[in-house]
Amino acid sequence: MSPLHQAEPAAMAGADWETVPRKHVGRWVAAVVVVLVVAWFAQSFANAQIEWSVVREYLAAPVLLKGLVLTLVLTVVAMVLGIVLGVVVAVMRLSKNPITSGVAWVYVWIFRGTPVYLQLLMWFNLALIFPVVSIPGIYTGRTVELVTPFVAAALGLGINQGAYTSEVVRAGILSVDEGQLEAARAIGMTRLKALRRIVLPQAMRVIIPPVGNETISMLKTTSLASAVGVTEIVLEAQHIYFVNNRIMELLIVCAIWYLAAVSVLSALQFYLERHYARGATSRALPPTPLQKLRAAVLRQKAGA
């Protein structure tokens, strides 16, 4: 190597390099565009013909609060039914018995393949093909008296949800290493006990996020229950604006309550995910909002 080439690394090592921050031009352009769009939307709503006093007036209207409570109750009932059915059908799908797994597959195929709106109407009109419900020794009566609008909505939403939840649970069970189940069977556990004590607790890390999203989706899907006469919050709002013609104001009230309920459910989902992520060694637990606030305050004090 020539003396000239030998001197170059030494000169480069001794040079005082200046660090120039990268100019993120595209990022700033995108930020300006977003701010302009948000400002346009805000100005449009400020100049819109919306009576915000009407929104404030009906925000705590007893009839709308009653509809909100019914919406929440229907969401809970439908999700409980959907989760129970989902776990049972997922275990059936994974069974080595071809009849059991076949029946579970047909259930998922039917209830995922037809619209939930159609299913609600079919449950509501069940009395047309089964006028009497008879359970020997337990119950005998007219179907129309048993399947009320609320029961029809709960059955329709819950059974439909069970088909989707079963696929989520099945994916969660399959995500657990098969050796866990084999080890449990080796120490004398039955298959169902091993699923309940060993596999499902570990699968919850995979199951909770999509089931949380399904719960939030269910909260909004309950608005379809008005098709069978369930007076949830949207139907109650319709009853009001058919009289006073304040359509957008009443719909905005519904939107506010839906956003509030979804915010609460999102917070619950976050803490559930954090709880079941404690056993994961690959990544740290996500910080809670309080921890984020504390960290921001400490950074602010350190900067000062």
From TrEMBL:
Keywords: Amino-acid transport, Cell membrane, Membrane, Transmembrane, Transmembrane helix, Transport. It is a multi-pass membrane protein. CDD domains: TM_PBP2 (cd06261). GO terms for molecular function: transmembrane transporter activity. The chain crosses the membrane at residues 28-48, 68-95, 250-272. Residues 68-269 form the ABC transmembrane type-1 domain. Pfam families: BPD_transp_1. GO terms for biological process: amino acid transport. Signal peptide: none annotated. It is found in: Cell membrane. Belongs to the binding-protein-dependent transport system permease family. This is Amino acid ABC transporter membrane protein, PAAT family. It comes from Saccharopolyspora shandongensis. The lineage of its organism: Bacteria, Bacillati, Actinomycetota, Actinomycetes, Pseudonocardiales.
